[in-house]
Design a protein that fits this description.
Shape: globular
Mean pLDDT: 91
Number of strands: 10
Number of domains: 1
Low-confidence stretches: 1-19, 325-331
Oligomer: single chain
Strand order of the largest sheet: 2-3-5-4-6-7-8-9
CATH superfamily: Alpha/Beta hydrolase fold, catalytic domain
Radius of gyration: 20 Å
Strand content: 15-25%
Structural class: alpha/beta
CATH class: Alpha Beta
Helix content: 25-40%
Order of helices and strands: HHEEEEHEHHEHEHHHEHEEH
């Protein structure tokens, strides 16, 4: 009897440990480097040092959710601008339950060096609030950036949203649901619409059989997606579909860039989504980064081609204005 009780207590402890939510800091460049360096000994964590050509404005509250102040960091080109600059809002990854906004600081800084105003945001993770809270937060961040456009020299008509991994899915869903009030419930008169999407190795479809093999794995109690949706696919199929950017694509969808690693499972659905965008005449592009692990954008030498791809695409679809701040928008 005593032995039986021992195993019951041990199994209960293991179950509790399995269900325990990871800390946000469990997915950072440092923790990911420790996992990847043995297989990729040449990689280096991309620098977060802010050069003199960039100005950082940190720990800015963009919205309050209950007692939680959600914050963002801004990275701007130093010095005055001839015209308002395009902006890009970055959403970090971490399986919807971990991650920190500092993960996108290196890319934000490099985009600022190229003339963008870049914001990295925190948002409510699944242990705090389930789907679609993160989408509401991403839209609130876009509204904040647009509302403060004059203060930071931003062009309110040229705002992109980008993200990696879970953040790529969040960014894509935020963009393709432009104008959908149920995803934008705060009642703020400032628009949360974006003019471009950059999805870096994030899912476009949770519902395919291939995606569910990973995201709905019965061995995981719960899986990262299951924790976010509050149940497995069989229990919450409508939410799994609702969170899939693929099913929200319309003719009015923003131009979309997919940057994908060599690990197919993390970006499943992008091919179908790109095909649907093409059929509707929406500009889109797919840029593979060969021979890469997931989370490649956190590291050199892969950050440089990621920045290059994002900058090239955004210059086509939301080109910088060349007129003075007081002039009418360029045609």
């Amino acid at each position: 009897m005593r032995l039986t009780m021992y195993w019951m207590v041990l199994l209960a402890g293991c179950s509790a440990q399995t269900l325990k939510a990871p800390a946000p800091e469990s997915y950072t460049a440092e923790t990911t480097y420790a996992k990847l360096a043995p297989a990729y000994p040449f990689i280096r964590i991309a620098s977060r040092a802010v050069p003199p050509t960039v100005r950082a404005v940190t720990d800015v509250t963009y919205v309050r959710r209950g007692a939680h102040d959600l914050k963002l960091d801004l990275y701007l080109p130093a010095g005055a601008a001839a015209a308002p600059r395009p902006a890009i809002v970055f959403v970090h990854g971490g399986g919807w339950r971990a991650g920190v906004r500092a993960n996108f600081a290196p890319m934000a800084i490099r985009m600022a060096e190229r003339g963008y105003v870049a914001a990295t945001i925190s948002y409510r993770l699944s242990p705090e609030a389930p789907y679609p809270a993160a989408i509401h937060d991403a839209k609130a961040a876009v509204r904040w950036v647009r509302a403060h456009a004059g203060e930071y020299g931003i062009d309110p008509d040229r705002i992109a949203i980008a993200g990696g991994s879970a953040g790529g899915q969040i960014a894509a869903l935020t963009g393709v649901t432009n104008g959908e009030r149920r995803f934008d419930p705060d009642g703020d008169p400032v628009s949360s619409d974006v003019q471009a999407i950059v999805n870096i190795d994030g899912l476009s479809d949770f519902t395919s059989e291939e995606a569910r093999k990973y995201e709905d794995d019965a061995a995981k109690q719960p899986s990262a997606a299951g924790a976010w949706f509050g149940g497995r696919y069989a229990e919450k199929a409508a939410l799994w579909r609702d969170a899939s950017p693929l099913y929200h694509v319309t003719k009015g969808a923003p131009p979309t860039l997919f940057i994908v690693s060599a690990q197919r499972r993390f970006s499943l659905g992008y091919e179908e989504m790109a095909e649907r965008l093409r059929a509707l005449g929406v500009p889109n592009r797919v840029v593979p980064v060969p021979d890469t692990p997931h989370s490649f954008w956190l590291f050199d030498p892969w950050l440089a081609p990621t920045v290059e791809a994002a900058d090239a695409f955004l210059r086509e679809v939301i080109p910088p204005r060349t007129d003075s701040p007081g002039s009418p928008p360029a045609a």
